Amino acid sequence: MTSPTPERLHTYQTPVYDSTRWDGFKARAGDVIVCTPPKCGTTWTQMLCAMLVHDAPVLPRPLTEITRWLDRHTLPIEEMLAELEAQEGPRIIKTHTPLDGLPYFPEAQYVYCGRDPRDAYLSFGDHIANLSPESLADFARRAGQATWPEWPKDPNVMFPMWATQGAFPWMYDGAPGQSVLSFTETFWRFRHLPNILMIHYRDMTEDLDGEMRRLAAFLEIEVDEARWPEFLAAGSFANMKARADETAPNADKGEWLSNADFFRKARLDAWREALTPENQALYEEVNRERVDPKMKLWIESGRRAAGDPRLI
To answer: What are the tens digits of pLDDT across the range 29-84?
Structure first.
């Protein structure tokens, strides 16, 4: 029998992050946990949350300082927890850990952002290509390898593995990177809980006004209508890219070859041209039985096409 609330069932440890770093975290009422698969609008969602929570279309500090990635290895966990504890009011915390690897705090608010898995896969390839040699060397060191494996330039090479093998033993997709579908399921089961909101990359792209208003209502934040255009302009993908030195994660630590290229293409349905007919058919075949059809429609199409997840 499924628990009525999320349970912490798994530990997620990679050369990039470690879910056990949440062990010492103490939540506050109103904390916002932005929890998404990689390349599914995480940074964009962080930006929207930060603007709303701080009532500021122009943030006072770089986004990566205001919305910390708690489980990333970069900062020692003692320093990370002390920094979060020193922040006043609700905190905004980023994570790529699925919901079944996180502690569940009823007093916190969880914001998940979804994206068509095939576009997320393509953006993951862009992501790897843009990592600096220093970042790749750090990942390799943490993995006990001499070098970090090169990602093929042709996205069709890795796609069959990504579509059919789990990033972790209990997952069915995402290898050798991170899952989108298995990850999404950890939220989909609990989408009706009042402190969980599921937004979508496509809706943010095609209707930023509507999706930001949903987010503001969920966070119980009122924004002066006279200032709303400022927030919309500041929250646009184009503005995020134009201010990449302030918005890209770890931009100040040499994470990327190009900070602007972290926001490279905002791919939407790019998989239709990039993936071969064989790989497109494989995706449909393997997910026909294993994925809830309602979830599949939503993750591929967004709220405006599939409906609000809470009402499905």
So the answer is: 999 999 999 999 999 999 999 999 999 999 999 998 999 999 999 899 999 999 99
Contact 126, 141 (CB under 8 A): no
How many angstroms separate the CA atoms of 35 and 191, rounded?
13
Q: Is 242 helix (H, G, I), strand (E, B) or coil?
A: helix
**Residues in Cβ contact with 217 at an 8 Å cutoff, skipping those fewer than 6 apart:** none
Residue 89 CB neighbours (<10 A): 10
Written as one string, the DSSP assignment of 41-61 is: SHHHHHHHHHHHHHT-SS-SS
d(CA 278, CA 45) in angstroms, rounded, equals: 33
What pLDDT is attached to residue 171?
Answer: 97
CA distance 35 to 113: 7
The C-alpha atoms of residue 33 and residue 101 are separated, in whole angstroms, by 13
Q: How many CA atoms lie within 13 A of 214 on its CB side?
A: 21
* CB burial readout 8-28, b (16+ within 10 A) else e: eebebbbbbbbbebbeebebe
Rounded distance between C-alpha atoms, residue 92 and residue 106, angstroms: 15
Maximum alpha-carbon separation in the chain: 55
Q: Which domains does the chain have, with CATH numbers?
A: 19-311 (3.40.50.300)
Active site residue 96: yes
Look at residues 18, 309, 290 and name the one whose alpha carbon lies nearest to residue 163: 290
Identified catalytic residue from 54, 96, 127, 200 = 96
